[in-house]
Design a protein that fits this description.
Blueprint lengths: L2 H18 L2 E5 L12 E7 L3 H4 L2 E6 L3 E6 L1 H15 E6 L15 E13 L1 H4 L3 E14 L4 E14 L5 H24 L3 H15 L1
Length: 208
């Protein structure tokens, strides 16, 4: 290896080490208004796992080092408000599976999960904004503990790179992705045929 090639190789290795040691910490903060929708006439339980409550995403990029995105606290707060706006009554419950008779005072239980989180920076996409996406899974159980609905919904958000620093721009994009995902959940869930059948069964049980 020539001296010039050796120096070039050495510089490249040093840059990789420097970038690997560079960490961008993103804490998602801000106000996320809940969508205004007609309430579903049911009282539900909700189970938030520890992973959901404290969700953090980490990725190491060769071009920009390590990224850590902490969205658990903001995501949890939004979902607590979201479900309260969607249903007549909401209470947190222990982890499923549910014991027979344990949920008789509730009409059902919802378990939200974050399946996937991803983001793009301007250096990767070639565009002038940061973007983020969150894929949620929403499980709906009836009061007997049987799954009656399983939906995957994706929320998207983006933020102009010139308006913020890298951490704030990605935090804003992530916040908008949470909001978009919540709006899709609120609108699309009420339109699902499983929800209509579930509500009919609740109504029939109340008449008996």
């Amino acid at each position: 290896m020539s001296h010039l090639k050796y120096r070039t190789h050495l510089v490249a290795m040093v840059m990789v080490v420097i970038l690997a040691g560079c960490t961008t910490n993103v804490i998602v903060e801000g106000t996320v208004p809940t969508p205004l929708v007609a309430k579903i006439p049911a009282t539900i339980g909700v189970y938030f796992s520890d992973e959901f409550k404290t969700f953090e995403y980490k990725e190491v990029m060769r071009e920009s080092g390590t990224w850590k995105i902490n969205l658990g606290k903001q995501n949890l707060s939004f979902f607590q408000n979201l479900l309260s706006s969607m249903f007549n009554g909401v209470e947190e419950v222990p982890e499923p599976p549910f014991q027979s008779g344990e949920m008789q005072h509730l009409d059902g239980v919802i378990v939200p999960r974050i399946v996937k989180y991803g983001f793009l920076t301007p250096s990767i996409s070639g565009l002038k904004f940061y973007s983020a996406s969150i894929q949620y899974q929403i499980l709906l159980y009836d009061r007997s503990g049987d799954i009656i609905g399983d939906w995957n919904i994706v929320g998207y958000g983006k933020s102009e790179s010139g308006a913020f620093g890298a951490d704030d721009a990605l935090g804003e994009a992530t916040l908008l992705a949470i909001r978009d995902g919540g709006a899709r959940i609120a609108i699309e869930m009420s339109q699902q045929p499983q929800i209509a059948t579930w509500l009919q069964n609740i109504s029939s049980a109340g008449v008996e």
